[in-house]
Amino acid sequence: MTEADWETATDPNAMLQFLKGRTGDRKIRLIACGVARCVWDAMPADSSRRAVEVAEQFADRLATQEELHGAYRAAWDEAWDISWGEDASVPYAAAAAAEEFSVRAAENAVKSLGPQPIHCEVIRDIMGMQFTPRELKPAWRSAEVIALAQRIYEERRFPDMPRLGDALQQAGCQDATVLNHCRCSGLHARGCWVLDQVLQLGHGNEVVSEQQWLTCDKPFKLLDWLDYLQGKPPDRKIRLFNCSCVRRAWPMLTDERSRRALEVAERFCDGDADESELATAEAAARDFFLPVGEVLGRTAGNDPNHRRLVLQWKPGLVAATLAGGMFGMNNAAFHMRELMDEDLATGGNESAIQAAIFRDLIGNPFRSELLDPRWLTPTVLGLARTAYSEPVALDPRNPGYLTLDPSLLLILADALEEAGCDWPELLRHCRSGQPHWRGCWVVDCLLGIG
Ligand SMILES: [Zn+2]
Ligand SMILES: [Zn+2]
């Protein structure tokens, strides 16, 4: 995007794309709010407006994560109710402003309303001159200028912007761009670049930090962040992720057809099974869980058989889903979380384990480097192939739960180092002592599959 493109852009999505890596979570959040504010008067009820207001406070660290989430839920529920009878794009845009991930908040606010040129005006007002940035001199920030800017910011008195221009000029400002911006008839939003500079409000934090990535225990959040940082992962990784999540419950796959569905789904990931084999496996797995589900549907919750049936039905359903081609994160992995945490009451940490699996498959997007082909000695390749094709069961109580042999990865790290490998993240990962799963990013990277 050139300066002229930026100044004349009419597609807010292109502008948001351009801003990747160029700004922080505060500015992005305020863009989401500014977009939602474009339809303020059309907002149907208090919870919509409240979502936008809380999101604005959150941007300035004046509301907590919990308050943001509560406002989002209330607005979203309202939008959902409305959507049954009429167009709910406005309440959905308001809810979007309070979505947890700031980037998604901005994208979804625009998406809910449909991209419009006025959204570009909001973005330009908040981001200012991207190609010839302006700096306000300290002398221009007189007490009068600051007090006026504060009032405009806090009370949304944007019609007073020309007065701010006058006050700035009185304080010595001769920058025509700054003065024109204050005096122009165009739109100003909370986060306006001139106001922000007067009030010394910054861009905010990184939209996602390495620390957040490494400590997050929600796989769906990781997926969202990854999409922002480097794009969606390949289908194969998503499938392998889901397969590993289901493998954890191998002893609960009591029927041979369910186990077969999982195995075929795994082979499909590497092209060793085709669509028709997958479909056959899915149909067979359905033949198992559907009749169980029918009985379950007629069984009361307090029936002693109810729980036993749930524990048969749900894993069967999940295994069939895997082979059914519905590989989204919210399917197999989601059902597994429910199964483990709610039905088995395993302590509620299944989500954290799934997040660890996801990170193992994807690697650390903050530490990407290029693989040097000189490291791919026959020893390295042999070890990587064995690790991938001969997974082991580390837990004798769960012989169907297969992971890569961690001792092979330790040897692999030595072999890589001997071959001259100096990629710290890669060596550290092999030696981490953490479990590795099929699709582990190091092994995939060495074998050239991704
Ligand atoms: Zn402005
Ligand atoms: Zn690994």
Textual characterization of the structure:
The protein has 450 residues and is an all-alpha fold. It folds into 4 domains: 3-127, no CATH class; 138-199, no CATH class; 213-362, no CATH class; 373-447. It has helices at residues 3-8, 12-19, 25-37, 46-59, 65-83, 89-97, 102-113, 117-127, 143-155, 161-170, 176-183, 193-199, 210-215, 219-230, 235-247, 256-269, 275-297, 304-323, 332-343, 350-362, 378-389, 406-418, 424-430, 441-447, and strands at 392-393, 402-403. Strands 1-2 form a two-stranded antiparallel ribbon. α3 runs antiparallel to α6 and α3 runs parallel beside α7. The chain is globular. The two termini are 30 Å apart. The model has no long low-confidence stretch (mean pLDDT 92).
Number of helices: 24
Choose one word for the global shape. Answer: globular
Measured on Cα atoms, how large is the radius of gyration? 27 Å
- Write out the strand line-up for the largest beta sheet, numbering strands in chain order: 1-2
User: Low-confidence spans: pLDDT under 50, at least 5 residues?
Assistant: none
Structural class call reads mainly alpha
Main beta sheet, described? 2 strands, antiparallel
Rounded mean pLDDT is 92
Strand content: under 5%
Helix content: 55-70%
Q: Which kinds of small molecule does this entry bind, naming each only once?
A: zinc ion
Distance between the termini: 30 Å
Query: Could you say how many structural domains there are in total?
Result: 4
- SSE run: HHHHHHHHHHHHHHHHHHHHHEEHHH
Give me the count of strands: 2
